Each structure stands twice: as C-alpha cells, then as structure tokens.
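In response to the reviewer comment on reproducibility (Comment 2.3), we provide here a single inverse folding case reported in full, input and output, so that an independent group could reproduce the run without further information from us. The structure tokens appear first.
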C-alpha cells in the first residue's frame, strides 16, 4: 500500500482526488518531510503518446501564479512511469467545501468573494498566457488555508488545458458534464455529431456554473431526475435558456422548466452583492457563443465588483440588514442612492445614526472617509415616514427533500443568529432615536 519515487513517499490510502485519467495522493518528501500532492496517471493515460502525457507538465511549467497550483517537479516510479509532484493544498477542493452540511445553501458572502477574486485572478493569468483550461469546476479548484484561517483558492488539473488565443477555435471535447458548455455537451454526452468549433467562452460557461454552485450550493440547471439521469432535458435546459436567465429547474417529471433571473432567497449572499453578480452570471451563462461575454468584459465587470467598498447598513423600521457595495472614490451622494435602491427609502427621507449618535454626512464627501462599519456596528437608517417591516426573507426552498437535514439545521441556526443580531440592532437603534 506504499508507493514512492526517488524523493517522495506516499500511501495509496491517502487519496486526495480521483479523475478519469489520474489519482492524486498526499505525499511527503523523504528528506524534509514536506507535504506535497503527487499525481499518478492510470494505465489508460500512460497508453497515450508521450507528448500527450507530458502536456500537463509543459503547461504548468509556463504558469506561475498564486491562484494556480504549483508544479514542483516530475519524477518516475520504479516502473519508469512519470508522476507530477505538486503543491499540497490543506483545505481540500472547493467541491469538498460545498459538500459540507453547513454549506448546503452556498458559502457565506466573505468566502464567496474570496472564491470570486481567486478565480478571476487565476483566469486572468491563464488568458495572459493564452491558455484555455477546459475543465473548470469546484473539484478542480483547491483551497489553501493560511495560518490566519483565511482561504486562498487555486486552479488545478491542467490535463485538458491547451494554448488558445481569444479568436482561435478548437474541435476536441473535454470537461465534466454538469459544467460543460451546451455545444460541447451535445457532442460529448448526447453523441450528436456537428461541425461546431469552440473558443475560450467554454471556460466562461464553466465559471458561471461554478459561481452559481458556490453561491447557492446547487447546480443552476437540473432536470427532475437529475443532470445525469435525464441528459436530453439537461441539454434542452442549457441550450434553450432564455436570455438573462441564470437557472432552470424541472420540478415535475415531464413538466415545464422554471426559469430564474435572480439568485434564490436561501443563498447567503446579500441583496447588494446579488444585484452585482446576477448580470455577470447572465452574461457568461449564454449558450450562443456570439452573445456570450468575452473575457475582457468578464474581467472588467468582476473587477468592478471586487474593488467596491462594503458599507454595512441596518434599516430600523424595516428590521433588515443591507450590504451597500460602493466604490471608495464615489461621493456619499452615490452611497445615498444605493441605500435608496436597496431599502426603498428616498434620499430626502434618510436619517442616519452611528454608534448611538446622529451621523451628519455631506453629499460631496468621499465614501473612503466614511466611518468603518461591520455587521454588528452598521449605520442605522431611519425613514422620516412609516416603513413596512420586511425583516429576514423567510422563504423556504420548494424542494427541501433534496437537501440533507443537517444542512437545513445549519440554515435555521444562521437565521436564529441573524435574528439575535437584528434584535440587538433594533434596541440600539430605538434607544439612540429616543
């Protein structure tokens, strides 16, 4: 049950991941004891031509970025078969994180933003080097956990990657069914011959499915029986998706597809972040390659999201918390407008409190000069007119039977925690007002 190369040793029971062509094990350097990941290819892979076997090594050798798993070296087994010695990521994959019960409804907002930032930075490095990945999915995004507990996500598994500039096309098929662009799905899964070629937009589609999965805990496109049990319907959902829709679910066998143009209430993202994320998902989850965003547009839109400053706000009469995303160089007037957009409270009716005091703000002031806020110390906004109490959106999923009960319990625990926090903010706000 032990395997080794000249410098590394591992147990065949320490499996980190398995794919169609290889298995990845946790290994140690024989001298230093340093942990690494070793990728061992199976017999089918070793029967391929030598240049194909070494393509992943050659691809990784030209890439060097903090959001891409590092390749240290290539060594040989006693059988002379080559293995890849790579960076070990202690947090497992993004998929394993999403499979934890507490993430059955998606990742928390701060962690989701970390995932988004790491994917954008890693993909930007790939495009700068003219590389298309062709198999982006949560299982191919590894998580490194630092000493401070913060996550860094890294793209891995470049066995299907190839060099491809923006205007170039390719014909070969790679990828994983649930994350596959509809044109590729039609040929690879349904086995329908066609003469379509594919460009770098196939990575954008996979990124869109991955981000939706990360935000909600679910795949965006699901037939009644599941993606792998009803493949014709799976293809129909993705290929026939209306413009602007970001999800399609068939809830009854043989029934219609329910299209969604927004993220579900059960996900943990704030209203402010959802409003910024949905247009991005709609732009890259576009089956028609001529209508799909390009990487330039994707990078511009996501960078705009990631560069915004978060201002925490609690609407007292509505008993609702908000995350206001605004650029640090914007004026407070722009902040007031975003508050009006999310709360429905007109600019002239907004009255702000902070840490027990009235907060006077000039419209020309810069957002960067606003006091620092947090979920427990937000700005509190009062309206000069009565407001409806919107509170938390306690809307249940329609198909909770598909979610393990532990995941639902974690969701209720989060709701209780938010209710306790909101109760404290309500008391704080009313005492300040009085």
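Designed residues, in position order:
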């Amino acid at each position: 049950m032990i395997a080794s190369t000249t410098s590394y040793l591992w147990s065949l029971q320490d499996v980190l991941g398995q794919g169609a062509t290889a298995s990845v094990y946790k290994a140690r350097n024989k001298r230093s004891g340093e942990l690494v990941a070793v990728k061992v290819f199976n017999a089918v892979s070793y029967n391929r031509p030598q240049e194909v076997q070494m393509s992943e090594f050659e691809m990784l050798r030209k890439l060097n970025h903090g959001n891409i798993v590092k390749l240290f070296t290539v060594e040989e087994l006693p059988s002379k078969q080559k293995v890849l010695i790579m960076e070990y990521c202690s947090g497992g994959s993004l998929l394993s994180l999403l499979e934890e019960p507490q993430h059955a409804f998606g990742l928390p907002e701060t962690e989701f933003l970390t995932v988004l930032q790491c994917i954008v930075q890693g993909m930007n490095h790939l495009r700068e080097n003219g590389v298309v990945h062709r198999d982006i999915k949560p299982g191919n995004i590894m998580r490194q956990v630092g000493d401070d507990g913060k996550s860094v996500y890294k793209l891995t598994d470049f066995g299907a990657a190839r060099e491809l500039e923006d205007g170039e096309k390719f014909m070969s098929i790679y990828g994983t069914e649930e994350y596959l662009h509809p044109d590729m799905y039609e040929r690879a899964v349904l086995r329908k011959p066609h003469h379509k070629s594919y460009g770098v937009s196939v990575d954008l589609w996979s990124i869109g499915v991955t981000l939706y999965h990360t935000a909600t805990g679910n795949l965006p496109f699901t037939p009644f029986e599941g993606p792998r049990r009803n493949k014709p319907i799976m293809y129909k959902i993705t290929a026939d998706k209306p413009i602007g829709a970001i999800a399609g679910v068939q809830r009854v066998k043989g029934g219609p597809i329910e299209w969604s143009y927004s993220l579900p209430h059960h996900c943990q993202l704030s209203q402010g972040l959802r409003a910024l994320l949905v247009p991005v998902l709609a732009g890259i989850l576009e089956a028609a390659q001529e209508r799909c965003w390009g990487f330039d547009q994707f990078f511009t839109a996501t960078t705009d999201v990631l560069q915004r400053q978060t201002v925490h706000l609690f609407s007292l009469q509505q008993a609702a918390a908000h995350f206001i995303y605004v650029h640090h160089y914007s004026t407070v007037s722009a902040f007031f407008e975003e508050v009006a957009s999310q709360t429905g409270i007109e600019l002239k009716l907004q009255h702000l409190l902070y840490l027990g005091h009235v907060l006077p703000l000039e419209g020309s002031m810069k957002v960067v000069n606003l006091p620092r806020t947090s979920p427990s110390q937000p700005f509190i906004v009062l309206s000069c007119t009565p407001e409806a109490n919107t509170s938390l959106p306690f809307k249940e999923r329609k198909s909770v039977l598909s979610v393990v009960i532990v995941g639902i319990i974690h969701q209720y625990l989060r709701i209780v925690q938010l209710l306790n926090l909101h109760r404290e903010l309500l008391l704080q706000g009313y005492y300040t007002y009085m």
